[in-house]
Target: beta-N-acetylhexosaminidase
Amino acid sequence: MTLPLIPAPQSSTLRAGPGEPLTASHVDALADALSPWAPRAAAAARRTLADLVSTTAPPAEVTVTATQDPSLAAEGYTLDLAAGSWALTAADETGAFWAVQSLAQLLRDGAVPDLQVSDAPAYPVRGMMLDIARFYFGPDDIRRVIDLAASYRLNQLHLHLSDDQGWRLEIPSRPLLTKMSAAQDVAGGQGGYLTLEDYEQLQRYALDRHVVIVPEVDLPGHTHAAQVAYPEISPDGAEREPYIGTEVGFSSLHLTSDEAWDFVDDIVATLAEHTLGEYVHLGGDESLTLTREQYVTYMERLGAVAEKHGTKAVFWQEAAGAALPPGTRLQYWTSQIETDHIAQVARDHDVTFIASPATRAYLDQKYTADFPLGLTWAAIVDVREAYDWDPVAELPGVPAESVVGVEACLWTETPRSFDDLTMLVLPRLPAVASVAWGSPKDYPAFASALAQHGRWWDADGLVFYRSEQVDWT
Ligand code: TNX
Model:
């Protein structure tokens, strides 16, 4: 039997013991043992494990120990489940939280297996990106995405908050952004936006699940919606109509005017002030109207603005080669643009890379050529393509130590509902999460675990794609 754990742990041993039903005593004892040093893990245990308790089992005598062991790798944990006795160790509070996420999968069917697990992630940054600019998903949907991400032991949600088609975050110093540029989306719908209060609450909700939110305002391209609200920041100052098509690369802010840079300053100030995490993402992709020199000059100034506001920045890979503040992260997404200099940049600059190769980690690409949702510009990405890859090998010449993470990206030109979202995300998010976690590669075991998760998704009312690469029966 394969364990239903996704991501698969670094190692596990299933022993021959009989196992036992999960009881409320287990859950209480676990939560009590965790609460002194890992309160969020204790809360998660009460929230997610209590529902799995078998209603017919008599109360059990259970001893649970939960100890912090700083000698484990960061975010690492071990579990030893035997009849009547559980032991959990974790490197830190986060590791304890991941242990509970793993338990939620191991115990999902109400029985306690007799086993040992030892686990830790390969990459410190394990993310999912959600584009709420093209199609707006509101706080309730975003919370469900956070839950899903955390259940696959991802620790970052990157929200793409602005694009040509819409502006999705309240900026008090620039009220016209949400007044004029939020009430539409690519589906011809009503759009919407997050208030700063929503944003704050979402971040707290995420942090309770050890997930950090990285907000993205995309600059200087992908800014048509901002220019509709404030024409003076555009290259020609002309008034613009809202745009709900899906072309990319046509817009840019004015590169040098004071009005345009005052705008950028206001935006970065607001993001820096209201973001709990260390990083904000400032875009930098597909500025197709600029020369390379114009672009690099712009990105260097943008990096300095982030630094001035005390925040670290993430940029899309195009910014590689610009002189950026130390600690900057670059998000690699495609081999279809010039990448010769990327290896050099990794060696010569204090920047690190997040791997989001579109051919593997773009959850908006079609599963099959005739799949109704998704795009095809990068590749056909079925579950096996999303599972079978190595982040370091995907990044041209970048040394392993410069690759700090993996992120799965969901762009929203085609999804129109939460069901469409989960259809694109499941089962590929668990596949990319396995890569991010650095699970030992074993596709048959992964596919058989996925089939189990498929039954749970059905039970939870989550729509997913029944890839032919998995035996779902
Ligand atoms: C490219 S990936 C984009 C997005 C699109 C996406 C669609 C990237 C940095 N830019 O603007 O939504 O392709 O797959």
In short: The first strand starts at residue 11 and ends at 14.
